[in-house]
Amino acid sequence: MQITAFNEYYDKLTTVEKKNSPKELFYKGDFSLLENGRRVAVVGSRKVSELGIRRARKIAKLLVQNDITVVSGLAEGVDSIAHKTAIEFQGHTIGVIGTPLNKYFPAENKELQDFIAENHLLISQFPENYPVTPKSFPIRNRTMALISDATIIIEASEKSGTKHQGWEALRLGRQLFIMENVLNNKISWAEEMLSYGAQVLTNDNFEFLIESIPFLTTKKEYVF
């Protein structure tokens, strides 16, 4: 478990980003994934439908094809599908967890979490043995939105915790995309997010919108 590289990363954040960033970030794996290129968070229901599974895979595959790192929270459902699809298609993925690095939630994702820690990047703002509470996960969502250039909501219900991720993305000035099926289900918070700048992903526009996601969060200093 390391935090040194994050100290340098933190120094490059804007004033607003620092205000919304954890002061410590513990990680295992390739920290350069947090500094280079574009990152997009793919989030949604834990109890995802078959159609939601197909949508999550389609989106994650397209992100990889555009050399975009797939970020998610290692929860069951959409999160796990996004991570696994990125790995399957030889892309990069970052797991942002709501537990310390030495804990697993859900326990069934232990193998996936360990693989990401060894071959990609696993991060947490919670030190070892920190007590895990329901509040830990919305806090984690803020960090996940912070490190991502955009967030894509694949599928969600009215009471879904996914809404925390959406609001944090908008508040931080990140792009937020909501798949059309979420709005077709008359999810009130999703409809409200449209008035704050969220965009609808449809079968007709999703490729264009994803390909045009800007570089908002790259913190690597390049020398030319």
TrEMBL record:
Matching InterPro entries: DprA (IPR003488), DrpA_SLOG (IPR057666)
Highest taxon listed in the record's lineage: Bacteria
Transmembrane annotation, as ranges: none
Pfam families: DNA_processg_A (PF02481)
Smf/DprA SLOG domain boundaries: 8-203
Record family assignment: Belongs to the DprA/Smf family.
Name of the protein this chain belongs to: DNA processing protein
